[in-house]
Specification:
Elements (H helix, E strand, L loop, with lengths): L4 H16 L3 H16 L3 H6 L7 H15 L4 H5 L1 E4 L2 E4 L12 H10 L6 E6 L5 H9 L3 E7 L2 H14 L4 E5 L11 E6 L32 H10 L3 E10 L5 H10 L3 E7 L5 E8 L18 E5 L32 H13 L4 E5 L9 H9 L10 E6 L4 H11 L3 E5 L5 H8 L5 H14 L5 E6 L8 H8 L5 E6 L17 H9 L4 E4 L9 E5 L5 E5 L12 E4 L4 E3 L8 E2 L1 H5 L4 H13 L5 H4 L14 H4 L2
Helix pairs in contact: 1-2, 2-4, 6-7, 11-12, 11-19, 12-13, 13-15
């Protein structure tokens, strides 16, 4: 007598768990898929007929399929198909089985492709064609070329192309780029082999049945990625991008390969499990003629200018009063760069690729006539004729009086530092008598002036203000303001930083997610330090800056100009290059640019990545944040 569907699901799921080491949820789904195929029904029917008794033929078909799975054969090969990116794809042992994590590669590819206009895409090692066809299905304007060296894989890809009836895909047999002489593309994507030859996982689970050549690549798994990266430039149009899927622990190595090959805006993207799964970068002939690269192939794109070392607050993590009391000697006015000197230096930086300037301090609004400096900087143009983005970070105390003038002068974006909504906590952190409402009024004034979105930064310190994370999140939720939580950092030498006072970005996100569903968002621009998240219900956006637990040195494109004209290439630097002296000695703009270029080209800073590896990393003297800007 045959068993009911409920009994089959229960018993055979347990057998799969035991035999193949699957988790309970995966085992149950696999048994459901096999039952659907044997009974030729959909999942909804299966779930609504739990007591149905399969007849003899149905049970025999199911038993045959189940035994193949018990022997280790993947369900996708047993059934001959797998769903990917909302489409159904035929698969065979000649191709890899499309996996959910690879959908991230398609997501990132689609972000690169405009909705209109011809855009050429190359998919290297297409296999079943899942990546190429998913892209072509979502972007009818894309011309997609999909290559593979395996005749068996191309046969499967051809069947999938015919099934989905897409006219914007061309399949080609080629060993990576070998058959593409002279062809160039706007985007190259690949999910290449990336497992080390000696990896024991190759002899386990589903991997035993998948084509070895599509899985393994050399002693460290990176041989094919090296080849793809090294030859990509010959097949990319200026401004084109390369996107690569890789192993869970290979992101840093892949970024390094991209940087060494001259790619700019190198980044890694995380999948839904938080794993860096896709890395990429952009290429333009010599990275456009204005760009300069440091020793780690990072371009100079951002300049932070500290316009004053003074502040009207004494925040404990930045300018603690015991160090910056009434006896502290601030820089005399004559030692500060004048507005004319700042603009002249900024022009040199823009000539070498800087696209964004942020004014900081101390507190920049303490610098008299700051709106006039903003107006002068707003007139700068890149080599391509684009305006330079001018931003500012402020504590917001004087913002209510200045917001409209700053906006009228050409300030593009504004960020306000605010660490608490509670007056007692705020006064304790800022060591001042300023009420929180004064800062909130400044934020409101910025919104009225047309800054959108205003960003608010909260430095979270354990035992100080970590109990207010949810209060801050709830206050700014739905307001149009982007709240960003910053891990307490070891900047300078005066704040007595300790690792046990750090509340991690992950802990902050978990706290918010316990009350509101949140979803990851892609960066606004390459090299953005904030990890972005949105409320699933449309309540707005938050961000986390994980400078301690998730170093982002690999994509740092920032230079910093101190109040008295010294160039620093890292927030945690101890020495800077004096540009004020040659400036006041009357050197030419060409000489100034040469000094900046040589300094950047020698740059190898990656303090945050080395923080835990080098014992001396937390003991050497670092410049104070109030002097260099945040």
């Amino acid at each position: 007598m045959s068993s009911s569907l409920t009994a089959i699901l229960r018993n055979d799921s347990r057998r799969l768990e035991t035999a193949l080491g699957l988790d309970a949820g995966s085992a149950r789904i696999e048994v459901q898929c096999l039952l659907q195929a044997a009974l030729q029904v959909n999942r909804a029917w299966l779930l609504t007929h739990p007591e149905m008794l399969p007849d003899g033929d149905q049970f025999a078909r199911y038993s045959s399929l189940f035994e193949r799975r018990m022997n280790g054969e993947p369900v996708a090969y047993i059934l001959g198909s797998r769903e990917f990116y909302g489409l159904d794809f035929k698969v065979s042992p000649a191709t890899l089985i499309p996996r959910p994590e690879t959908e991230l590669l398609v997501d990132r590819a689609l972000q690169c492709i405009p909705q209109q206009g011809v855009f050429r895409v190359l998919d290297l090692g297409t296999g079943s064609g899942a990546i190429a066809l998913s892209i072509a299905h979502a972007r009818a304007n894309a011309e997609v070329v999909a290559v593979d060296a395996s005749p068996g894989a191309l046969k499967v890809a051809t069947l999938n192309l015919q099934h989905h009836n897409l006219g914007n895909v061309r399949l080609l047999r080629s060993d990576w780029y070998a058959g593409l002489q002279g062809e160039r593309f706007d985007l190259i994507v690949s999910n290449p082999p990336y497992i080390a030859e000696s990896d024991t996982h190759l002899a386990q689970g589903d991997l035993r049945y998948e084509p070895h050549g599509a899985l393994a690549s050399g002693t460290d798994g990176l041989d094919d990625i090296r080849r793809i990266v090294a030859q990509a430039q010959a097949h990319l149009n200026p401004g084109g991008s390369l996107l690569l899927e890789h192993g869970y622990d290979q992101a840093e190595q892949v970024r390094a390969l991209l940087q060494q090959a001259g790619f700019a805006a190198v980044f890694s993207a995380r999948d839904l499990a938080g794993i860096e799964r896709v890395s990429g970068g952009s290429w333009s002939a010599a990275q456009d003629e204005t760009s300069i690269l440091d020793t780690l192939h990072r371009p100079l794109r951002d300049l932070r200018i500290s316009v004053t070392d003074r502040c009207n607050l004494r925040c404990t993590y930045c300018m603690p009063r015991e160090m910056f009391d009434r006896h502290h000697v601030f820089l005399p006015r004559a030692e500060l760069l004048s507005f004319e000197e700042i603009v002249r230096l900024a022009r040199s930086f823009v000539g070498m690729g800087v696209q964004k300037i942020r004014l900081t301090g101390g507190e920049p609004l303490l610098r008299r006539g700051i709106e006039h400096l903003v107006a002068s900087l707003a007139g700068l143009r890149t080599a391509q004729g684009r305006p330079v983005e001018i931003a500012m970070t402020t504590n917001g105390v004087l913002l209510g009086e200045k917001a409209q003038a700053l906006r009228d002068a050409g300030l593009t974006r504004i960020t306000v530092s605010l660490d608490s909504l509670n007056d007692e906590t705020f006064r304790r952190i800022s060591d001042s008598d300023v009420p929180v409402q004064k800062v909130l009024d400044g934020i409101a004034a910025a919104q009225r002036a047309g800054f959108a979105p205003v960003k608010v930064n909260m430095v979270v310190q354990r035992g100080v203000n970590d109990h207010e994370v949810m209060a801050m999140a709830e206050h700014f939720r739905g307001s149009g303001i982007v709240l960003r939580f910053i891990e307490y950092m070891d900047v300078g030498n005066s704040n007595g930083w300790r690792l046990d006072e750090v509340v991690t970005a992950r802990q902050i996100l978990e706290q918010i997610a316990s009350r509101h569903a949140i979803q990851p968002i892609d960066p606004d621009y390459p090299g953005e330090v904030a990890e972005r998240w949105r409320y699933a219900d449309g309540g707005g956006e938050i961000g986390v800056i994980a400078a301690i637990t998730q170093a982002f040195c690999h994509s740092c494109t920032r230079a910093r100009l101190s109040t008295d004209g010294k160039l620093y290439t890292c927030l945690f630097a101890s020495n800077g290059l004096d540009l004020r002296a040659p400036l006041r000695q009357g050197v030419t703009d060409q000489t100034l640019s040469k000094l900046i270029e040589e300094c950047w080209q020698q740059r190898n800073d990656r303090y945050s990545q080395l923080r835990h590896a080098a014992a001396e990393a937390t003991t050497f003297q670092k410049i104070e944040m109030s002097y260099i800007g945040g």
